[in-house]
Each structure stands twice: as structure tokens, then as C-alpha cells.
Amino acid sequence: MEPLIPDVLDLAPLPALEGGDRLTALVVGPGALFVDWHVDPRSLVRLKGSLEADADGAHMALRVHLIDPEQTGVPRARQVLDQRVDALSGHQHLTFTAHDRPVLAVVSVGLDDGHAFGHLVRSAPVMLPPCISQEPHETTPTKASTEESTEEIIDWASMALVQEIP
Amino acid sequence: MSATTVLITHHHLPAISRDHVGQRPEGCWVLQYVLHTALPLLQVTEGLVADGVPFTLGAAFTPTLLWQLSDPNLPQAFRPWLAVQKAAHEAIQAACVDASLQPALDAWSRHLERLGALFEKLDGDILGAFVDLHRRGHLELLVVPASHGILPLTGLVPLQLQAGLTAIERTFGRRPKGLWVPEGAISPQLTVEAAALGFTHALVEPEALGGAPTLRDTAGQSTLLYISRDAGFAQSPKATDAAYPGAYGLQVDDPATRALPNGVAMGYARLHTGDRLGAPLWARGDGSFIKQPYDPEAAVAAAQAHADSWARHQSEQHRVGAIDATAITDRWLEGPAFLDHLYRHGGVAWGTLEAVAEQSTPLADRSPQLYSRGPQGDLQWWCDTAHHWLTPRVQGLARRLSALTGTIKSNQGKAALAQGARAWLLAAASDWPALMSAERWVDVALSNVRAHLHACARICEMLEGSDGLFEEVDRTWLTMYSAQWSLWPDLDLEVITPQTPASLEPAPQAPPGPMAHAEDDHPLRLKPGEFV
Fold this sequence. Notes:
Structural class of chain A: mainly beta
Shape of chain A: globular
Number of strands of chain A: 10
Number of strands of chain B: 11
Oligomer: heterodimer
Strand content of chain A: 35-45%
Radius of gyration of chain B: 25 Å
Radius of gyration of chain A: 19 Å
């Protein structure tokens, strides 16, 4: 008869993470995220199947978007990182220049020129901490690399990419 | 007379099943803590009390350690284990033919005898001795979150803080207002979360405050004072390669230093470490890493000189020397002598952290930096490749527990949910990722964290299917698991706020399809309406 409580030296299986597709983003520093993702291969097949014929070169990309907390209506988000990923599951440390702003990470399907066709999974939004300075209550966000980034309008509720502004 | 000086010791062990005490290597951790940390400290405080020396020692106990110290079977496990330590040492002593090592071996024999005698004098009640010290006004308590979790990463911070607070209150009968932050890991959100539970101040690493001795952070109605610990004090016993008891604060032109044998300005380094059997053989480090046989008298003299030097160090600001209790005892054999000498020094204005907090006028009023101890001063170390799978699971289970809070109505269901929260707290301990990253005791870390993650997930699954009406096999399993892991008996799940999805989260009627799934919450809890 098997014991009801396995001995702690017996490695109990890791509990599954909820959902077939998931993307966890953890703030690990000012402008630094740790992301851990898993995409169900069926999700990728479904998304690619819905794409146009010219999307043959599409690949998976890991993106990070800054969210403007002041915005109303359909939020706009600045992309601050776009990086090709080849694995359906993985984890990475990402760094970029931004602080005191909410961000989220997205695994998308897109092309090398940055054009995105759709999102497979996104993380919950997380808040980048302010960068400490000697001035009291310094909260001015850094722009840096965000200036040259692609700007997108995203329908967050459905996760569908509505439009891309070059 | 210098400004107020505070000394705080941090006492922590991860929770190891009481069934394993004295039976497995990790089951001996608590016994090692008793012999090499608690008893040496209590020996010092006993002497100070007997001599009428006024002193206050700070202590930040983790609930996981308190639970193990309150194990009624601890004395029965300790005595035979100590006998093995003594027997092994006697065997080493008998086999040793190097006469130069005899002073060290003799000193270690006497050391074991004294500590064993103190254990019997206390009737094996180590926790009771600390409680008594507190009742006499010599022990200032700080709260450590439940299982020493990395607060900015794990989630359920109010639960962790509350569990730490009630553990101290239940043991010592007092609700401290000061917080010891595990691994120095903080995010600006801590202000609101800690202030809500009545904390007024938190002790953190100097880097988190950008070098300021104190910061006052105000967020809405919440205020928390962040106090930096002395940057150098904790480095003293860590400087094992170049100096022991350490070069910090020990001035080379200090008259006390010059008076030492051989002009010792350095100290003593452990000659070899490893298993705990037998004497720690020590050697003098002369700065060139040439080891010499341990000289117990010179070692104590060096520690006392170090204490004199530190006591004479003048400061306009308060000084908070904070250190892991094992670092100033187990890893620094003369640490207790250092403490004893320091407390007997007439030139130090001893105080408490609470008094410092009340009297402090912060130079700056702002949020602290996101910070953690580690190679880079951020949280990356806690998401190491060696355990990248861990924190996402801990966060995922935190969300499931949060979602269940408020939905469970039956007493049986609430009891199960509380045990699920205990399993989660046990899994969220910083020890497991730390051990895996350091590649030490990896099997212990893996087996424990997997068992607790699995238990928490199983309980969530049970509750998601039923409000307390469990299958017989689940009920039996839960009873046994609850008996084995009985920490935090008065866990208050009311502090878990059911997490409201942020406005960015998919609406329930979101269209199905490959992009419909998303995680439903995040650790920083953005407010609804913040983005739309």
C-alpha cells in the first residue's frame, strides 16, 4: 500500500501551471523582467493557420510593452523590447531602460521587421519600480530606448492587435 | 558617548519536518542551531544578567525556527546528538599527535562541556530561555515574515507579514512594530502592506536606501520608516579569508591591536570546515593566508580588541549592527566573546530599534529602492536558471488561494484553505531557491519545495471542486499533512484580499481562441481603472 504522504525525499511532481498558454513576468529590478512562458503548440498552429499567406516567415517573438497609465479609452503601448524566440517553453531575463511604469510581456507571432500578426499569450501587467535618486519623490520616467520603438494600439480585452503605427 | 547603538541578531532555519529531527542531516540543522548559536548567545546573556550589565539584544526569529524550537521532542533528540558530537571529538583528540593542535582541541572540549551544562540547566527549553530574556527586558523583538519569503516576488505579502507577527505574539506575548525583511528584499509596495498591520519601521540594507541612514515613505495614509543597518558590521565575521574576527573597525594603529601577541591585526580563520563532528580547527590569518595553529586565548583577545575598536568608533548617527545569529556564533567562534566584551564596554549608548525609529528624523522622504541581497542587488538571483520554474508556480498558487478566499463557507473548507496557505508559505521560503542556486543541499530543497507545492495545489484542487466535502482519501491525506505541518496555528486568512483583476484583464465574455487566455493577476496589484 502506498503511503498517503510521500516521504519528503521522494520528489513529488511539480503541480502544473494553470492554462495551456501562460506567460509570467516578474519584476526583478528597475527595467528588468524575468519572464517564463509556455505556449501550447496547438495555439501556435491555430494562430498561424489564421494568418495570411504572406506570413510564411512569421516566427514567435517576445515583446515588452510600456503602458501609459494616463491614457483613457483604448490604451496605447510603447514596445520597448522585441526579441525572437524559438522555443514554445522557456525563460529569460530581459532588461530595458524604463522605470516607474506598468509594463507587460507578450509572446507574439510576427516578422523580423517588427510587424506583428497576433498575440499568443500575454502576462499580467506589472509595475516597474521607480529609480531611486537623492531627490525626494523622483518619479520622472526615463525615455531612452522607448523613443525609437514601434508604437501599437492594442485591444487589451481581446488581446487582438488592432493596428500598428510605423 | 556616541549616538545610540543597536545590535540585532537574525535567527532563521527553514521548516524541516519534526519527524526528521536528529534522523537526517537536515533534521540536525535545528540541533546545530541550538548547540552552536542559541546556547553560546544564551551563555553570554546569562553572564551579563548575572553581573547586572545593562544590555538589549535585538532578535528577529522566523516562525519556522520558532516552530522547530517549540518541538516537545527537541530535548530528547538533542541529548544523544550532543553525545555523538562529544564522542567524535574525543576520538579526534585521542588520535591527534600534533601537540600544537592540543590547545584548540582542549578548548573545544571545554566549550562543548559548558554548552551541554547550560542546556541541562535550562532543562532543554531553549525557547523558554529567550522568552525569559524578553520578559526581563533584554530582548527586543522584530518580526520576520512567515517563512522568510522574498516579499516582492512571492505574493500574499499581508499573509506572510501577519503570520510572522502572530507567531511572535503567541510566543513572546508582544506585537513588535519593527520588521526584519528577508534577504533585504523590498519593493516600494511594502510601505502600504506593512503599515496596514501596524508596523512602523523596517530594517533594510543600506543599498535599498541609496546610502541614507533612514527614509520615511508615505503612501496615502500609510507611513513606514526604513532604517539602514550598519554596512560594515555584518562583514566582520565574514572576512574569513583575510582576517578573523575581521578587519572592519579594527584599526591597525589601535593600541589594543598592537598589544596583541605577535602584533596581530588580523584574526582567525577556520582551518577547515565540513562535517560538524569534532573541533573546528582554527588558524591565525596573518594577512598572507599562512595559517598557524589556533591559539584560543589570542583569538579571544583579538575579538575583544575588535569590540573595543568598534565601541570607540564615534558616529553622529545611530548605529544598527545587524547580523545573522549564526554568523556571530557558529561561524565566528569568538563572536560571543566579542558581544560580551562589547556590552561591557562603558562607552556605548545602547538602545533599541524601536527607540531609534521614534527619535529618528529622516533625511529624506521617499520610497525605497527595489532591492535584494545578491550579486546584483536586485531580484534576478531569485529567478535563477536552477529554479526558474519555482516562482511562477508560487505566484500561480497564490492566485488560486486568493480566488478561493471568500468563496469557502464551511468550517472544514476553511480549515483546508488554511492548510493550503500553510503549504504555500512553506513553499515560498527563500531557502529553497537559495540552496538550489548555491548547489548545496539541492535534494533537500527540491524535495521540500516540491512536496509543499504539490500539497498546496492538491488542496486548491479539492476546494475548487467542493466546499469541504472531500473524498475519504483526500480527507485522510489532509489530516495527516496538517498534523505534520502544524505551523502558524492561528493563521488569519482575512488578510488575504481576494484579488480583483485589473481592468486590463480579459473580460469574462472575451472571445474564445488562442489569445483569450492570460494570467489573471500580478504581484503588484494595479488598481482597477488605472489604465482605462
